[in-house]
Design brief:
With 245 residues, the chain is of the alpha/beta class. It has one domain: Nitrilase/N-carbamoyl-D-aminoacid amidohydrolase (4-Layer Sandwich). The chain is built from 6 helices and 13 strands. It has helices at residues 15-31, 52-55, 57-66, 139-147, 164-178, 231-240; strands at 2-8, 36-38, 69-71, 75-79, 82-90, 96-101, 122-123, 127-130, 152-156, 182-185, 196-204, 207-215, 219-225. The strands form 3 sheets. It has a 6-stranded mixed β-sheet with strand order 7-8-9-10-11-12, covered by helices on one side. It has a 4-stranded mixed β-sheet with strand order 3-2-1-13. A 3-stranded antiparallel β-sheet has the order 4-5-6. Helix 1 runs parallel beside helix 3 (57-66).
């Protein structure tokens, strides 16, 4: 069993305040032996991160202390001179083991942000992919992660209140399509609608039913998954898919 979790955050007045407060939550989750934790996209007031190692120093220390992988969200940062939205992955040794860039910048982001070009699968306590917010809309993204070997998907997101219902539909659909659990973290405040989700799947009589756990306020949730139970039904699902024009 793999114990994973997500944190639903409000927006903090400064980066240092937010990181300090969320560090306390990460400590609690670490004491509960959580293996991987995901936070929302752009939950800090100043969403531009100049140095992931420096900004998330406390997160790195907590990750090493508890042998935990932390996905601290997704933020504006520079890559080879270009502005991108990137999600750093802090591994259980306390080091950043890689970054996933947002493949589909949303709306106004397209004017400033270079799109990412690769779906990267990371391996710490399991093999996983990171789908950043708007990337969830496009079925090919989640399918690519899973076909590359991801056993579970995490999604740092920032969804406005009027977008919650379609967002929930996309997340559940991607989980069902690929027979894979998904943890999707959102921001909660007056503008952003929370409802962070942990999607599990249960099969009975060859019918797969999603089981959705939600967070309503600023809080965290932890769930244990038996990732091996998805392998057979996933193999069948992909083998049933036919090529057509």
């Amino acid at each position: 069993m793999l114990k994973v979790g997500l944190i639903q955050t409000k927006t903090y007045s400064t980066n240092s305040e937010g990181i300090s407060q969320i560090s306390k939550t990460l400590e609690k989750m670490g004491r509960k032996k959580t293996s991987i934790v995901c936070l929302p996209e752009q939950w800090l007031k100043n969403n531009e991160i100049l140095d992931f190692d420096l900004e998330f120093k406390s997160f790195k220390e907590i990750a090493k202390k508890h042998q935990m992988t932390i996905i601290p969200g997704a933020f504006y940062t520079k890559n080879k001179g270009d502005l991108v939205i990137s999600s750093p992955i802090i591994g259980p040794e306390g080091e950043i083991v890689g970054q996933q860039e947002k493949i589909h910048p949303f709306d106004y982001e397209k004017e400033y942000v270079r799109p990412g070009g690769e779906a990267k699968v990371f391996k710490t306590s399991c093999r996983f992919g990171v789908i950043i917010c708007y990337d969830m809309v496009f079925p090919k993204v989640s399918e690519t992660f899973v076909k590359k070997g991801a056993q579970i998907l995490f999604s740092p997101s920032r969804i406005v209140r009027r977008g919650i219902i379609p967002w929930e539909t996309y997340v559940i659909a991607r989980s069902l399509e690929n027979r894979v659990p998904i943890l999707a973290a959102n921001v909660v405040n007056r503008k952003y609608g929370g409802n962070s989700m942990l999607i599990d799947l249960n099969e009975k009589d060859k019918v797969v039913i999603p089981k959705v756990t939600k967070i309503q306020q600023e809080d965290f949730a932890i769930k244990s998954f038996d990732l091996s139970k998805f392998e057979k039904t996933r193999k069948i699902r992909f083998s049933d898919s036919k090529n057509f024009n």
